[in-house]
Amino acid sequence: NGSPELAKSFSLITGCDYFECRKPITTPFKKVLNTAKFKDVLVVGDKYSTDGLLAKFLGARFLRVERLLNTKESKFIKFTYLVDNIVYKIFPMIELIRPWQWPKNFLVFAPLFFALKAFDFQSLYNVFLAFLAFCFASSTCYVLNDLKDVGQDRLHLSKMNRPIAAGVIGKKTALKISVLTFIITAIFVYSVPSIFPIILLYFILNLAYSFGLKHIAVVDIVIVSIFYILRVVTGGLAAAVPISPWIITCVFFGSLFVIVGKRKSEHVQEKRRIVLDQYSEKALDLMLGISASLAV
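and the corresponding C-alpha cells:
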C-alpha cells in the first residue's frame, strides 16, 4: 500500500520481494504463490474491499489492520474508507448465508415449466415464494452446519476462511443470523402452506446430515441428492401441478453424478472430508458411471 517508493524501501529493509500490480487482480499473486508453493498465505491490509477480496480470491486468510491517518486526505478517500468499514461488517454476514448457493433452488420452477403453467401468474407467484423459502431455509442450514463444524473447519485449508472459523463472526451472532433466516423462511412458508411438510423434512434431513449422516459412505451422497428432489417436489406443491416420475429420476441421478464427481475430485486431496476415507477410487468411478448412465 502507499507509494511505490515506500513499498520498495520496506522490501529492502525486510528482505522481501517487491512487485507491482493492481488489487484485487490475482494473476501476478497466484504466479508467485504457485512458484513458491506456499501452503498458508496471510494477506495484511487496511481495506477490505481490496486487500480482503484479494485474500478471498487467493483462498488466503486476511488480517485487517488500522490504517495510518493522513491529515491531507480528501473527503473522497475518507468516504471510501467509511464505505469499506460498512462492507467489512456486512460482507461476512452475507458470506455466512452463502447466497451464491441459491441458484440451485431454481429447480423449484421445473414442475411449473413441464406442466406448461410458466405463464400462470398465481402459480408463478407461489413458486417464487417457495423459491425464496428454500433459499432462506438452506441458508439457515449452512449457518447451523458451520456452527457445528467450526472446529474441523479451522483445520481445513479453505474452510478455515469461513466467517465463523476465521473468527470474523462470533458464535452468538451466527446463531442470531440463523434464527433470522429461519423466521424469514417461516414467513414465506406461511404464504404457501402446501410446502410446509417438505421444508420441515428438509430441515430434519439437514440436521441429521450435519450431526452424523454425512460421515456414512453412500448415505452422504444419497442424502444430498434427496435435497435436490425436495426442491422439485416443493415446486410441484407450490404450483399445485403433478410431478412426473421422470423428472424425479433425472434430477436424482443427475445430482448424484455431480456429487460423486465432486467427491472424486476431493478424494485425491491430502486434507479432505472424513467420509472419503471410506471410499475407494474404483468405487467412486463405478458410482460415477452408473449415475451418469441412469441420468441419461
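(Above: one complete record from the training split.) The CA atoms of residues 124 and 159 lie 37 Å apart.
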